[in-house]
Every structure is written in structure tokens, then in C-alpha cells.
Amino acid sequence: MKEVNSIRIDQTIKKLLSYATSEEKIDKEYKTYTCLSNRKLYSTEINGEIVSCIGVEFRNSKEGVIKHIAVLPKERGSGIGSSMIRFICKKYNLNFISAETDKDAVMFYTNFGFRVTSLGEKYPGVERFFCEFEVK
């Protein structure tokens, strides 16, 4: 895992972030990662190609919130997403990590061991879920 902190956004990172947020928010979100000390963005490479990223906001020294997590479609299901979460928890010695997601990613978080709670229809026609994990 490599920290992403370049002022210019790599096109693959931009594509990955598009899987995790709306197109119109990508540049603003990326700038937040490069400007705020409590936000970190990491990427994973395979054979020199960026294949995933995870963005985390740290609420305090023991708690993190996954703001963005994405893996290129061709690499999904290979454990990269889970390894990114484990990396963040270990690197920052977290006791707790959470995320908000849609129904498409609920199984990923459930399979990792997150407790998932429906937040209901937060946006018209879109159910959102709160996922929380106590690191042991």
C-alpha cells in the first residue's frame, strides 16, 4: 500500500474514486485528501498498475471512517479490499472503523465482519447502510 498525496490526481485513482462517489465530487474529495491531515488516501498496485484505493478520515487516534474504497472490477473478489482495511487498522492502530455504503457493498462489509445497520432511504430510492467494526 502506498500513500497517495500527489497534487495532481492520477487518472486511475480518478477512475477508482468514481466507483465510490459521484463524478462531480471526485476532484473536491481528492483535494480534501491532499489538504487535511486527518484524511489519508492509499492505493495498491499489482505489476506497476494501480488497482485499488482506500480513503479514510480519522476522527481521533483510535477511530477511522472509510470514506472511499474501490477496486478495479477485474480485481474484485481477490481479497484486495479486505487487505486494505486490515492495513489501515494496523498502520493506525485503530480500535474501531466504520463506513456508510449502499446495498451493492453490504455483502463485502458483512463478509469482513462489520455489523451492518440500515439507515433507510437516505436519498429518494436509495437505501444506505452504516457498517461498523471493532478491531481486535
UniProtKB/TrEMBL annotation:
Keyword Phosphoprotein: no
Domain N-acetyltransferase: start-end pairs: 1-132
InterPro entries in the record: Acyl_CoA_acyltransferase, GNAT_dom
Transmembrane segments: none
CDD domains associated with the record: NAT_SF
Gene3D superfamilies cross-referenced by the UniProt entry: 3.40.630.30
A single MF term (Gene Ontology): acyltransferase activity, transferring groups other than amino-acyl groups
Entry keywords, A to Z: Plasmid, Transferase
Xref: Pfam families: Acetyltransf_7 (PF13508)
Protein name, as recorded: GNAT family N-acetyltransferase
Organism: Priestia megaterium
